[in-house]
Every structure is written in C-alpha cells, then in structure tokens.
Predict the 3D structure of the following.
Amino acid sequence: MLTAFTASLLLITISELGDKTFFIAVILAMRHSHRTVFSSVLAALALMTVLSVLLGQAVALLPKIYTHYGAIALFLIFGIKLVYDASKMPAKSEEAVVNEAKEAIDTQDSPNSISKLPIVGKFLGSILSRYPWLGVWTQAFVMTFVAEWGDRTQISTIALAAAYNPVFVTLGAILGHGICTAIAVIGGRLIAGRISERVITAIGGVLFIIFGVTAYFQGV
C-alpha cells in the first residue's frame, strides 16, 4: 500500500510539472479566480485518475503473471522512451508546451465559445453565459480533461493501477495532481519560465525504470 501511494505520488507529481495541463492552469489562473481554476482543474484530473485506475483494474483481471510482467514491460519501455525523448528535446522545449496551452485557451476563452464546448448544449450554454464563474469552471474542466486524455500521467496511472493497490494509487495520484495544480495556480507565473520539460521528462523516465526494476524483484 505504501509503495502504491508513494509510486503514484512521485510519478504524477514529477510528470505533471511542466505538462500541458499544468500550463493551462497557470494561464487560466492569470485571467480568472484562483479558487475557480483550482477546483475545476483538480476535479478534471481527479475524474481522469479514477477512470485510469478503472482501466488499470480491467487489465488486472487477466492472469496475475501476465499483468505482472506486462506492467514491468510497460514501466521499462515507457521509461526508456521518456529518457530517449528527453535526450532529443531542445533546452527550451517548454516554450512549445506553453504556446500550445495558450492556443488551446485562446480559442475558447470568450463568452460565445462556452456554448460550443463539448458536452455543453445550447440550454446549458445560455446558463453558463449568465454566470461567468460557472462558465470559467466548465471551460477549465473540459479543457483539462481533454488535454489529459492519452497523456503520460494517464498512462502512468493505468500502469500503476494494474500493478499496485488501486485505492492507494488513486489517493497518491490525486494528491500529486493537487500539489501540481496548487503550484500552477498560486506560483505558476513565477516558476513557469524556470521549468525544463527536458529535465522533467528525463526524471519521469528514470522513475519508470526504477519502478519497473523494483516490480521485477518483488516477484508475482
């Protein structure tokens, strides 16, 4: 249980720093209420965590020996890929992530765009337009959820949930998301230019390799 909690907390915290969803929270917090942005972004990440853990548990229904070695292989392959990707990244690669986040926000950061968001119909769109804070909350939630789908933190959570206790993986992952979201909302403007996507990616890759090796020696 402690391994599950610690592994998910470390992997999510390291992987999420400097990620696209991190900068979405940073930019939105500069334009809107910190409390609204924090609650909406964290809610989207928590929902994604629960869904990812459920996917991991679905994989865990397979025979234990298959899921055990499959998780090890996923940890090692994904870790090696991240380290390789980091070695190919330019030193200023975080600028591309910031620009991508800005572009995603600018295309939807207007009252008229609220009704066009996914899962929001015309009736709900009119309600959201009347209550700006609710529109901002919905906008931040949807953008974060869509950006997180298929991201490395989702893959991390699925792999961890297949290998470790799902409850503690969920708790550790949500806490990790909460820490990163708080950093983004409160101090994101100060540290955004100091985060190296290259370094963060490399650290995440090393952690994946470490957990893969650890899982191998722990046995089935």
